[in-house]
Hints:
By secondary structure, this protein is mainly beta. The protein is about 0% helix and about 35% strand. Strand 1 and strand 2 form a beta hairpin. The chain starts with 14 loop residues before the first strand and ends with a strand.
Amino acid sequence: MTTMTTTATTATTAxxxxxxxxxxxxxxxEEARLTPGRGMAALLPDGRxxxxxxxxxxxxxxxxxxxxxxxxxVLSRGLIGSAGGxxxxxxxxxxxxxxxxxxxxxxxxxxxxxVYPVRTT
Length: 121
């Protein structure tokens, strides 16, 4: 009689977190659920929304999901691109571009969206 021993292995899953207030961290999703070049929306504890992105180089970003020009919660559905080496998302409505690191609107210097720190644990 032969006895077989099975060893279970546990794969660790990287979790993406963001900080909505610079003091606390909240879980957004498993990092693998982010599709490079596309965004997803995350509901923050205070009812606001964040737009979370992974670019094709694997960097992650989180900005406010609210388009300041229309008031619609749509930036997570925008197109990712780069200008001058800076990653941006273009709003799907009026096409204004927002820098993913600073939140600054590249098409109107007086407009910006909030940026949230992100980390992988």
